[in-house]
Structure formats: C-alpha cells, structure tokens
Design brief:
This protein has a three-stranded antiparallel sheet, with no helix packed on it. It is mainly alpha-helical. Helix 2 packs antiparallel against helix 3. The chain folds into two domains: 57 residues, no CATH class; 54 residues, no CATH class. A hairpin with a 5-residue loop joins strand 2 and strand 3.
C-alpha cells in the first residue's frame, strides 16, 4: 500500500476516533501499549502533549490536517483539450479530512480567456 493511502487512512481513522470521544482514544492507546509493551512510552508522549494548550495548538494550525491534494484523472475522451486547459490553470483537486473533493485550488497564474479579450478590443 502506498504511503499516501496509508496516511489518508490514518487521518480518517484519527478523525473518526476523536469524534468517538476521549474514552475511545484512551482505550486505543491502552490496547496498543499493552499489545506492544510500550505503555511507558505512551505515558511519556501523553505527558509531552499535556504541556500544550488547545489555544497553542489552534494558533499553530495543529488542530486540523492540511488539505490532501490529489490529481483527478480525466476520462479518455476528455484527455485532449480538457487536460491542456487543466494543466494551464495549474489547479489540483483537494480533499478535506472526510475525503470529499473541495474543488480546484487557485492557480498562481491568471487564467487567460480569449473571449473576454475580444470583447474588450472589439
């Protein structure tokens, strides 16, 4: 399995686990700690996280995952001109933490529309 897919599965699982509440998080940590004999390491990591406040994490944007960028393949019949337009815009699809596509990300280059140039000059 690719690292990108593993990362996305981890993000989705963590998001779901957090929605279940703190007991579910504690149960998972205890299960992993007991299974692998790393209870002390988990307690040390939890102590390190206890030094952070929710405000500190929120300020550093650590309370959410960055957008997950994925390239959306075009259908075979649209591969010609549509792909060229998409590449000229430089846009990529983004997915939020639930995996839904949010739309095109803005391109650093403005999109040239020949029709608007004709109206302006003609």
């Amino acid at each position: 399995m690719s690292a990108a897919i593993t990362d996305l599965r981890l993000r989705r699982g963590a998001d779901h686990l957090c929605r279940l509440g703190t007991r579910a998080v504690a149960e998972l940590l205890a299960e992993i700690g007991g299974r692998h004999g790393i209870q002390e390491e988990i307690l040390q990591a939890l102590a390190a996280y206890q030094r952070l406040s929710p405000e500190m994490v929120r300020t550093a944007a650590g309370d959410r995952f960055p957008p997950h960028l994925v390239e959306v393949p075009r259908e075979a019949e649209q591969a010609g001109a549509s792909s060229a337009r998409a590449h000229s815009r430089g846009g990529l699809r983004t997915q939020n933490s639930s995996g839904r596509a949010d739309g095109w990300s803005p391109s650093p280059r403005p999109h040239h529309n020949p029709a608007s140039t004709e109206r302006a000059h003609g």
